[in-house]
Amino acid sequence: MSYAFPPDHFDFSRNAPERLADTRAVEVAIGRELRSGDPERVNNGLSNILYWGYGQMGIRDTRVRRFRIKVTSSQLDQSCALFRRSRLPSVVEIKNLSLPEFARLSFVSKIRMFLDPDHSATLDLQIMKIHKRCPTTVLAQLCIGSSTSIPITENNSNALKHGAAE
Fold first, then answer.
1. Is the pTM of this model over 0.85?
2. Is residue 60 a part of any domain in this protein?
3. Using one digit for the tens of pLDDT, what is the confidence trace for 64-74?
4. What range defines the domain where residue 107 resides?
């Protein structure tokens, strides 16, 4: 699958950005970090989701730095356990980790997408516009309300679990 995002990744051991061959290489690299079972590598994987997701925005480095400062050892240990226990945890399970910078569905769904890119997708309000053109997709089951972002609720989690996105 090809995205409009550049295939950017950050090597935290070298403290240097790197451009990978393509988006699939980014998916593989971040997926390995998330599923490693090592809290520091999981930290790097989560940081790389922010690095990649905010890659075309001037706030990228601030968001990554803020995450790395605020995330706790306990949150990383819980993340390791969840990502090892479930190849595709629900958005509610991920939200319950209370990870800094991962409070909204857009970035929580990115975690799921990098854990299993073949069976999940990133969801945000821009993608939800597809629902207006294709009302038979899993997107029709999601409840947005009047929010500026898609809320993480049991209903939305169940829609993703039982819909075409999984």
1. no
2. yes
3. 999 999 999 99
4. 8-162
